Each structure stands twice: as C-alpha cells, then as structure tokens.
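Ticket closed. Logging final result for Apple domain-containing protein.
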Amino acid sequence: MLSTATDIVGRADQAFVVGQGLSNAGVELLGQKLANMTIGDIKAMLDLKNMDPLVVAELIGQIKDLTIALLSEFVSKVLSDPSNMFKSEDFVVKGDVSFPRVNVNFFRYVQPIPVGPLILWLKFGCGAYYGMKFEVGAKIMAMKAFAGITPYGGAHAWGSISICFGPLCGVLRLDGYVMELRFPTTAEVGFSKFPLDIGLSMYLELIPLQLQLSGKVTLEIDLAFTSFTMTLFKAVLWRYRTATIRQKIFDNRSGQQDATAPEVSSFTDDPDNMAKRSTPSCTVSQTPFLDYTESEFQISIRAEDDRCQVRLYLNIGTVPWTSDVLHRFELGGPSTIVKEKLKNEGTGVPIYFTMIAENNSGQKSEAYCSLSTYDVTVPGGRFLEEFMSTSNPDELRAYVTVYEDSEVTQALVGVGYGKDIYGDQTVAWNDVDLDHHEINDDLGDDRFNRKVLTEMFTGPVTGRLIGPKAAKNTIKYSPGDCARACADLPLSKCMSFNYDFGTAECELMEAIEGHHYTKSRSRLFEHYERLGIGKSKRFIYENMNLLHNKVHYFNFRIVNVLGYESILTSEGVLVDITTPETGIIRNKTTDYHEIIPCMDLIPEHDRPDWQIWCRGVNPKIQNHRLIVDGEGSETVFNGPVPMSNVRYTRANRYISANWDGFVDREAGMLGYTIWVGHQECEDLIHIHHDPHKHLFDKSQWTHSAMISPIPAPYNILPDDEYFITVRALNDVKYGGPLAATVCHTVPYTVDNSRPIMTDILWCII
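Final structure:
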C-alpha cells in the first residue's frame, strides 16, 4: 500500500487520484500520519468505521508482532555486527558558500485590457539565469573530505494572465525553464589510510525543459505617496519536468594499489609460544551459559595493514577450507560475537573456520581455527529401567545412556516419587561417573555391508523413530547399505536409522529413542540403533525397603561445559508385594500366606517361558496365598456354565471348570493355572497347566478350562469325586510373580452307575 505511485501529469499534488489510488503525495501524507499515530489511535479510528472488533484485535496483534520483529532484528544486528550499524548512514558535515543566482531580463511585455468593470492583464517575458554552488564538507564514517563546485545556467520564459476587480487580482502564471545546464565538479580526499586517496570528477547535467503553472490572489493598494501588494493565496497548480541527462566528463583518482596483503596473527600473545607459525591461527570459542536456542560463538584475529582499510570475512565448513555451513559472513571487528544460525550440517560435528582479511586493493590473508563441535542442543540420552514392576522391595535397577556433543561437567542421579528435579525422595541426588564404550569400526572387507550392520548396530526393532534427521532420505537397497551411510557420518551426527522394507527408504537419525523421541509403527519400518553411542552407567540399589503400591522414578541430571542442562527420567517402577485378590470366598477352612520357591508356582512343563520372571526373588516376601473355600463361595466353579457349580455329570472323558473375581490392581495378571485331583488341592488326575496358553492376547481369555484328553491312566474317569484347584499369578516383571491359589471344596462327581435297590417296603393303608 505504501509503494511508489505513478504520478499523473497535472495531478502530482493531489493525495488521491480516481482510478489510480494514492499518489506520491498521498503516500507521503499517509506515512506521516501513521508514523505519528499510536496503537490506541489506530484502534479508535477503526472503531469509528464500524470495524469488526475481532478484525481490529487481529490487526493490532499483527502490528505488535511486526514491531517486536523489527526491534529484535535491529538488536540482533547491533550485537552481531556493530560495524555495519551505519552501513547505509553516515554523518556528513558540510558548509554551503554558494554565489547568489543572477537573473538577466531580455524583455518584458505588459498589456492591460479593460473588460467592463474588470481589467485583464496580459504579461510576457524572457530572460536567462546563472549561478554557482560551492560546498565543502566531510563524511565522518567514510573518513572522506570533499569540496564541490557546480556552475549552472539556463533560459527562462514566462507568461501570466490576471483579472483585477479594484485592488483584488487573480493571477495565473506559466514559467518555463529551457536547457538548464550544470557542471558539478567534485574533489574528494580519503584520509582513512596513507597515502591519501585523491579523486577529481566532473559531470554534465542537462535538463531540457521544466514547466510550472502557479496561481495566486493578491491585494494591490496604490496610494499617492506609496503602493504595496499583499499575497492572499499562492499555490503551484501543475508542474512538469523532463528527465535529467547526465554524462561523465572525467573521473580521475589517484588509485594507488596496495600490492601487499594484510598481516594476520593471533588475537592474543602466547608467552610460551612466541615463535611465528607458518599458518596464522584465529581463536574461536562457543559462549557458555546461554539458552541453547540462542547459541553464539566468539571468534578473534589480529589483522593489520599500513596502507589500506581491512575487512574481515568468515567462512565455516564441515571440511577445512570450505564454506558449506556459512559463506563470506562479514565480521564487525577483530573480535566478534556471531549469533548467526548455522545450517543443520554445521551442528553437532567438528566445524572449521576460515577468517579472510581483505584490504581495499583486494589482497587477502587467511587464518584458520576449529571447534570440535558447535552444540545447539541440550544433553540427551535415555534412562531405561530394567523392570516396570517388582515384588522385591529391596532392589531397584536401571541403565542410562547419555549422548552429548560437549564435555559433561556434572552428572547426578536421584530416585523418587516424581520426575525431574524434585524426584529424589528415595535416593538423594549424588554425583556419578559415566563410562564410555569404544566400538571398533575397522571391519575389513565388507563389500556387501553385512558386517557394518551386525557389528555396529543393534538388531531391528519394529517401528519408526520420530526425531531430527541427520540427512535427507535416500533409497538404499538393503539395511546394510543404510547402515554404511550412517556409519560414514560422525557418531554424534548419525545415532540410528530407520529402514522401510517396503519402499527401501533410508532415514538417518540424529537421535536415539528416549529423551523426547519415541518410536511409532509406520509402514514396514524397522529401527536400528548404533552401538557405542555416548556414555553409559548401570545403577543397582539394594536394601531399599520400598513401600507397597508406590511408583518410583529414576532421574538423571546432566550439565555440560556450556551450561546446557537436562534431566532424563525413566518410566515409573511400581512396587507390588501383595498377591492377587480373589472373588467372594465364604465358609473358608484355610487361608494363609507362605513362602515357596518361585519355580514351584510356574507350570514346569506347560509354561517354561514364565520362568524368566523368577529373577531377583526376595526370600523374605510371602509370595503365595492358599485358600480352601467353602459352600457359597463364588470364585471357582465346576463345569462349563459361568458362575454355576456342576455337582454331578456323566461326562467322564473331560473335566471343565470356570472362575471369576481374580484381580491384581497393581501389576495386573500374568495368567492362570488349573489342576485336578481326588482330594482338595491335589493334582493326581491332571497337573497344573495354563488353559489360555493357545490364545494370543489377554483380551481373549475365557476364564474357563476344558481338560481333554485326560492323561493316562485316567483317559476315562471312573465314577468318583474330583476336586478342582485354580491359581492366579500376577504380572510383576522382577522379583518373581505372586500367586493366589483357591482349592474348591465342592466335589465334581462323575456318576455313570445305575441306582441300586436293596429293600422294598409295602405299606397298606
């Protein structure tokens, strides 16, 4: 809206032109008005125009954001490059001692024409003018002194018509300036360096034609002894000017070239190493104790030239003497703080700085320095608990892996009921030392990229890591090729990769799972993690005496040499030292807790995969509850009908049962086992086994069992009473599962015999 408007001849002074919008004059007026208005003034103006208040609020917000952005950009520019603050501005001191303009009149014609009571005056004239401008001054920032002389001259013709009624006259006047000729000549001396740079130039400027139409209203009083004229109104109604023709006549400068390059040396003198280096070195360091989103570095060099000004430029690359990260960035001085955001390729890897000192004649000298890493991220890593639930209240275990570009200066670990800094109620914060594992990357002959996949990366894990990428996605025809592309990058740059077995897409990742980065299922992606990443530490705490049904978190606080800090937190570890609860038990004859070997709770032949949970068992924890129920209990039932006891049956080739009410509110359920015997709690007919073993998920559990075929010698059950026992095991991942066993006392009777009649009684009434 405030762009340059095209003037229309005769309407240049109008603020608005129908069909064209704002003119140049209108744009200037609008800009001046807006510059002097506050946000409140703008809001009040919009309210008067019945504007939508939501639109007004949005506009005010945008104006505020624009103001903040402009201020932030200005402050950033001042801090990062103070030498360029006034690159487009200069302090100019000058004085004008010009000769006055001289007008020469060739002729002047005046003719009054009476028109009734009015008098019409026709006036014409022609002449010439000439003069000379002379000025001297100095440009402070550019360090230049100058003197200029501009002789000029031209022809002038004019004509006017006026109508007078008594002393009041209205005048229209047209002035024409023809062939105005100027010869600006400037002498300039630059005094920033020795020898002085002297220049002399002369130009020819020709303005073929200038026209100006003006109007005024005057009051002319003619008295006998004096007369005077008072102007009541005067304005320029229209003007026209042709383009200026400018041609250089000469432009001569001393132009003495400096054939020597600037001398560069270290910014600070090292008293221990005063010998001159063959390759000049600069000094660079990343500024510590800033927010990681506003990282900066300071780079310094000493550059001297006895004849010319010296400008400093900076190139940054991932390889020495390159500029793929930052190209020809102008520095503000010999020691400059640079806040310029570097490309992603220049973070987390060694970067190399090339400082270029260039004088006015184009001669250059270079100096080199490097950073082992430019760190723009907080310390990252992963804190993995070895189990998420435990029945051993005396022990906690976890494993932390830390990856960090910079040196870690402080590492502390704490265990408590919460996350982050306040999670240290169980184990107070204490310092730890991290271990670093080196991985041998000399794999010998690996033309098919098989060794690099198996020896430098973990096995595939289903899922796709969502996090920052180390490079653009590519197509690789095997996961080994993708592993090779990752291994070719520094360890801090490529920590893992995702590979899609459907599209052969390879994603190199600059992160590992944990610390804000997680995996998710996507297409046919598999995730591989690079071995030897960062530093690691395993934590084993014993004799803890943890409370039941409490969740404990491992917290790991990391501070690096730049002051960047983060806290890694594990998932919660739940302590469960109670056996599963049962359904309704009535008239029980036995109910007690006991300690039995963990392996005795597991079906030996049926579920050997459950035996892995019998680790870290605490010998003091009562891990088994035995209940012998009574009549009216509603936990274990005979037969296939849910919650209904079958007391008698003729079916002698299978045994069925169902149960209800088992629950573990802390760790959940691992599974159920069932067995059958001639007596309560006995397993003579069928040993305990998992009736849900053939199912894939807990949601498919039926809480019932059909035992068929029955192992020999009871393939066919003889008529007798049988008793069913059900055991429920909870799903703790460490310390061994806790179990509750309910021995059902209602007999399951198999009867295929006929009734026996022994006596017949006759009764005569």
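DSSP finds five helices and 48 strands in the chain. No further action required.
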